[in-house]
Amino acid sequence: MIRIAIPIFRNKVSPVFDSCTRVFLVDIEANREIDRKEIYLDALALTERVTILLKSGVDTVICGGISDVMASMLTGVKIDLISDITGEVDHVLKAYLDRGLDQTQFHLPGFRPDSHKKGTNARGRDHENH
């Protein structure tokens, strides 16, 4: 099983991870969602956010914009990062499971492919075998 964190604003991926207030934690097994819960990150410092994600067992963060500092903190603790993603959470999650996040409809304006994925397989997990 792997656990994905997706910051949310309404029903969409939050535009900026650093300042989001809500995050879905989605458990994936055998390439399908088996559980989903919501956590709140109101008024927490970046280090506190990373600590909560670590304690929650998050393997991968899928997000929109993210600061270089926060991106480095996540990859520094071996949490994979897929950034510059936009769209409705359910569509983004389905695209992730179908390995379709490279479709332009899921990219933020100004998307740069070289900055999209950081820390891939940092925990030794194979994203091809959710």
From TrEMBL:
Transmembrane segments: none annotated. SUPFAM superfamilies: Nitrogenase accessory factor-like (SSF53146). Residues 108-130 are annotated as: Disordered. Residues 113-130 have a biased composition (Basic and acidic residues). InterPro entries: Di-Nase_FeMo-co_biosynth (IPR003731), DiNase_FeMo-co_biosyn_sf (IPR036105). It comes from the Bacteria. Pfam families: Nitro_FeMo-Co. Residues 11-97 form the Dinitrogenase iron-molybdenum cofactor biosynthesis domain. Gene3D superfamilies: Dinitrogenase iron-molybdenum cofactor biosynthesis domain. This is Dinitrogenase iron-molybdenum cofactor biosynthesis domain-containing protein.
